[in-house]
From TrEMBL:
<dbReference type="GO" id="GO:0006730">
    <property type="term" value="P:one-carbon metabolic process"/>
</dbReference>
<keyword id="KW-0489">Methyltransferase</keyword>
<keyword id="KW-1278">Translocase</keyword>
<keyword id="KW-0812">Transmembrane</keyword>
<keyword id="KW-1133">Transmembrane helix</keyword>
<keyword id="KW-1003">Cell membrane</keyword>
<keyword id="KW-0484">Methanogenesis</keyword>
<keyword id="KW-0472">Membrane</keyword>
<dbReference type="Pfam" id="PF05440">
    <property type="entry name" value="MtrB"/>
</dbReference>
<dbReference type="GO" id="GO:0015948">
    <property type="term" value="P:methanogenesis"/>
</dbReference>
<comment type="function">
    <text>Part of a complex that catalyzes the formation of methyl-coenzyme M and tetrahydromethanopterin from coenzyme M and methyl-tetrahydromethanopterin. This is an energy-conserving, sodium-ion translocating step.</text>
</comment>
<dbReference type="GO" id="GO:0005886">
    <property type="term" value="C:plasma membrane"/>
</dbReference>
<comment type="subunit">
    <text>The complex is composed of 8 subunits; MtrA, MtrB, MtrC, MtrD, MtrE, MtrF, MtrG and MtrH.</text>
</comment>
<dbReference type="GO" id="GO:0030269">
    <property type="term" value="F:tetrahydromethanopterin S-methyltransferase activity"/>
</dbReference>
<comment type="similarity">
    <text>Belongs to the MtrB family.</text>
</comment>
<keyword id="KW-0808">Transferase</keyword>
<protein>
    <recommendedName>
        <fullName>Tetrahydromethanopterin S-methyltransferase subunit B</fullName>
        <ecNumber>7.2.1.4</ecNumber>
    </recommendedName>
</protein>
């Protein structure tokens, strides 16, 4: 399947390989509906992927009203990991103090 880029110059493009070349003879007039459907499906998937990278955008495979869930989930995750890191550092500090003061 070829797409005519510039009919007056005879340039065509193969959408699968993105190769631009000269048209050989008369290309058959094929329906582009299947290709357009594939491109629309790919575009929706790419939009969903790009929106998943932004915290304030709604995901395409999600229900409405969940635009800010990534922010809430990130806050909860950061709190949890911060708490764990703080407890580990506090424990290490207390262990160091006890060793320096002649304990253990």
């Amino acid at each position: 399947m070829k797409i005519r880029i510039a009919p007056e110059t005879g340039l065509v493009m193969d959408p699968l390989t993105s190769v631009i070349s000269k048209e050989k003879g008369v290309a058959p007039n094929r329906s582009m509906i299947a290709l357009i459907k594939k491109l629309d499906e790919t575009e929706r998937a790419v939009d969903g992927l790009m929106d998943s990278l932004a915290a304030d955008k709604q995901l395409h495979n999600s229900w409405r009203g969940r635009e800010k869930t990534s922010i809430g989930a990130g806050t909860a995750t950061n709190f949890f990991y911060g708490l764990i890191a703080g407890l580990i550092l506090s424990g290490a500090f207390l262990l160091l103090l006890s060793v320096l003061n002649g304990g253990i």
